[in-house]
Amino acid sequence: xxxxxxxxxxxxxxxxxxxxxxxxxxxxxxxxxxxxxxxxxxxxxxxxxxxxxxxxxxxxxxxxxxxxxxxxxxxxxxxxxxxxxxxxxxxxxxxxxxxxxxxxxxxxxxxxxxxxxxxxxxxxxxxxxxxxxxxxxxxxxxxxxxxxxxxxxxxxxxxxxxxxxxxxxxxxxxxxxxxxxxxxxx
Length: 186
Hints:
The protein is 75% helix and 0% strand. It is built from 6 helices and no strands. The two termini are 28 Å apart. Keywords: Membrane, Transmembrane, Transmembrane helix.
């Protein structure tokens, strides 16, 4: 369980550097250059992901709660929404007129969907941790950036593109999920 916790802590702390402590980021860049910062940031994030994956697999499973099977469709719909939000993050879309941080919101929705389906101790740590991380990250970024300036409206064609890309992401995740976690989505 310690690897999972260390991985989540490393993931969170490294991501909090640019959002919560921009001066530390600038100091890091000054010491290592832009490329050095990006390389070391990437290495730390990849290391945190490895710790999370290996920690997840090694963690003992102790069941804390089990929700009724009837909640599975809710979780699947939430995963579809998370895929759409993830797709919207790098696109010009009206979703950004409603949700300031679609990518972080997608992590939040993804976490909630997984907490609905998984009531074991390692799931509570992983998905609960990612849920809290995304909320804190949104808070820190909002604090750093100040008042939100909503983007201009865009064409409905952009929305269709986001829906299609989000649908493709969802299908790909549904197909590879059994290989990643041993559990089929649908």
